[in-house]
Specification:
By secondary structure, the chain is of the alpha+beta class. 34% of the residues lie in helices and 32% in strands. The longest helix is centred in the C-terminal third of the chain and has 16 residues, at 53-68.
Length: 82
């Protein structure tokens, strides 16, 4: 059975985000003074062939921990869709 995984990887809250800071400043310069707290991350989608949703989640968890996220600096969340 094929499942689709939607994964979000973001910098840890404690870590500075220079890209987010630059975009936030750019938006302010464009007159968008009400925009704050901009953080830049990654959105990853992939298809996983697995016997069940739980098995697909295990594969996605493993991929996030071993390759997709730097656990020292980033946090991740994901959703598995059938």
């Amino acid at each position: 059975m094929k499942f689709q995984a939607k994964i979000n990887v973001m910098p840890q809250q404690e870590i500075l985000d220079p890209q987010g800071k630059a975009v936030g400043l750019g938006l302010k310069q464009m007159g968008m003074e009400n925009v704050t707290g901009v953080r830049i991350g990654k959105h990853i989608t992939m298809e996983v062939e697995a016997e069940s949703k739980e098995a697909a989640a295990k594969q996605v968890e493993q991929a996030c921990q071993k390759l997709l996220a730097n656990l020292i600096m980033e946090q991740y969340s994901y959703e598995i869709l059938s």
